[in-house]
Amino acid sequence: MAPCLYTLSMLGHTDFVKEILARKPQLAMEPDSQRRLPLHIASAKGHVELVRALLSASPEACLAPDCDGNNPLHLAAIKGRSDVVKELVQARPDAARAIVQQETILHLCMNHNQPEILKFLIETTGDHEFVSSKDSQSNNILHLAVVYRQTETINFLLLSTTIQVNATNISGETPMDILAQGRKDLKYHQILQSLTQAGAVEAKIGNLFRQDPQNSRNEIGVDGLDNYNKRQASPFYLKETSKNSDDWLDKKRNTLMVVASLIATMAFQAGTNPPGGVWQDGTTTDENRRAGYAIMASSHPNLYHVFLVCNTVGFVSSLSIILLLISGLPFLKHRFFLWILMVILWIATTSLSITYVVSISVLSPNPMSETFKNVVKCIVLVWIGLMTLLVVGHNIRLIAIAMRGLRRLLLPRKRPILRPIIRNHDGM
């Protein structure tokens, strides 16, 4: 009977579940192999009426953890089932305070991008200690909100709760420290403004700022100036930029691999099965009409030579790209060599285009030849213009990058050293 109840809970058949619970209400507390109750399944699926029925049979089921430590309220919050969350909180408010692997339900909401449920739980509990709870890494939910750049959640936490804006995690980082490690985009400036207005500071460079007792202004202390300069020169601030650059290069390499593989496949297919097919009868005395020979070689010998040359160029170019990408050579991780591969890909696509034009011209009937030739001429001119524009543009870009690299090599830029601001007691 219990497996049947799980299936009905998953499908949301409330009436059948009510009939079963009316006869055997104890089935609501029968766990499966994963220690899940029917309420776990109904909550995760978002079946509100079914959740009500299961709660009426056994409200304690709301507190039961599964094998991962999640109770039904946790699963509903993770899945974004806001209506179910309200029902479960109303039935057993203490279910929201259960800890899962040293994380509260608020941490789960942050990690699974459920800001609306997070706001509801905070407004419902209204407990400062609960809101300021920390996970296994000593991050409170404000730390996580800054990590995920959730500006609305950050503003809500700063304005509607008493969460500690300068709480440190296990690495000694405040939310402001975490923000400083990210990319300086629009969200960065929005979050920076909100945190600054709330009095947030960076703990790791907190010794650089001293409070002037006379005018209450923050200044850079002389003792912390050397640490500040070292921090600015540290490669830590280049980590995010380097990561984004590596991700961009990886995506480009993957794209090149896919396109090159596709071109190689098409070129191989066209080479082994040319337009018009091959001769099937090998009894003829004509040397050019043996079985397996291309019919195009006899009917259009000049075009066949162009077809072979362009198809071979496209095939070899795409194979070269594939070979270089799978070779794992270290110099291929630089943008310069990636752009060289792009030029090779342009050559391959141009060769494939010419192969297509030749194939269509061979397969098209004669009445269409004049119109086809005029259309092809226009297309070829547009294509040549586009390719020329791309090649010239990227060559200019490569030359500019090479010149900047050469200039940095010959004339290294000196990093400016910040001077300490020394004030007297009058604030001058």
From TrEMBL:
UniProt xrefs under Pfam families: Ank_2, PGG
GO cellular component terms given for this protein: plasma membrane
Keywords: ANK repeat, Membrane, Repeat, Transmembrane, Transmembrane helix
Membrane topology recorded in Swiss-Prot or TrEMBL: Multi-pass membrane protein
Main location: membrane
InterPro entries: Ankyrin_rpt (IPR002110), Ankyrin_rpt-contain_sf (IPR036770), PGG_dom (IPR026961)
UniProt cross-references to PANTHER family, sorted A to Z: PGG DOMAIN-CONTAINING PROTEIN (PTHR24186:SF37), PROTEIN PHOSPHATASE 1 REGULATORY SUBUNIT (PTHR24186)
UniProt source species: Lactuca virosa
Protein name (database record): PGG domain-containing protein
Transmembrane segments annotated in the record for this chain: 303-326, 338-360, 380-406
ANK repeat boundaries on the chain: 34-66, 68-94
Compartment list: Membrane
The UniProt record lists the keyword Transmembrane: yes
Domain PGG as annotated: residue spans: 247-362
